[in-house]
Amino acid sequence: MIDAHGPVRFGFRELRNATANFSSDRKLGRGGFGTVYLGYLKRMGMEVAVKRVMTSANTSRGEQEFIAEVNSISKLSHRNLVKLIGWCHERGELLLVYEYFPMGSLDKLLYADARASGAPAPEELTWERRYGIICGVASALEYLHHGSSKRILHRDVKASNVMLDGGYGARLGDFGLARVVQRDGATHHSTRAVAGTRAYMAHESFFTGRASLGTDAYAFGVFALEVGRASDAADAALDGAFDPAEAERAVKLALACCHPNPRERPSMRAAVQVLAGGAQAPEPPLVKPPFVWPPGGGLQQEIELARVGVLFTGARAQSSFCLMTSSSISGR
Fold this sequence. Notes:
Shape: globular
Helix content: 25-40%
Strand content: 15-25%
Structural class: alpha+beta
Largest sheet: 6 strands, mixed
Number of strands: 17
CATH architecture of the largest domain: Orthogonal Bundle
Oligomer: single chain
Distance between the termini: 26 Å
Mean pLDDT: 80
Strand order of the largest sheet: 1-5-6-4-3-2
CATH class of the largest domain: Mainly Alpha
CATH superfamily of the largest domain: Transferase(Phosphotransferase) domain 1
CATH topology of the largest domain: Transferase(Phosphotransferase), domain 1
């Protein structure tokens, strides 16, 4: 059930007209669950991004994503979150209406040939802006985990899900995989299948099928490292123009968030304090810690996961390890 006391419910005809019948000329992008179009709502006098969720008679995945997104962010209000304006469930169509950000998603500025597409050049992602983006996403996750009335796990933090406003402010969006965890002490959400984008997923996710505060923190760590140093071109663009103290805080925090042991990762509340300079950044270990599941070791086990390969976990001869024998991992 979709909560009725949330964003505006639109009619299909209005959204069809707003997007010129979902014209290919209006296409902004395509993701794992649907296509996003640029629309113009005459009654509101504003441009919007309209996501047309893919549906199939063979699966309810698209509808599940639709309901999850509406319910999880309908009442959220934070400066670093993309605002859901409305939705439509009519004629077998599932549509979501968001704020529109002309600058697009962060990944396009980090990696794409910006000049060819007419977008701002990568040189405009100064260190100050990069650090602000890292801080903004951290603040959004802290709000989802600790600040809203319901604890929400995003489950898909990555550069392509971060939009940029006109001032290069970060707006975390795409809540299709997000799940609400009630405030009864629960800190995780169990799923039947591994969900998320694999390059950003914590190792334990493949064993437990669970999303947690720690798996969101891990994804944030990968994201922070990515934004801090996306490419050699970024290094040239920064040309030494960065704050060494901020850079050290960001890197140390990112490494801590990516710790193989989920118990060692900082909370997003602690992460925000570190980035603001209100707390010391955790010191990374001198030697890269191994991944062991479950944490604390145990007997050696061999596990085979679809699309991942054979994994060996546990303790053997007082040395704990996890070995991936296959790297056939693809993104969502």
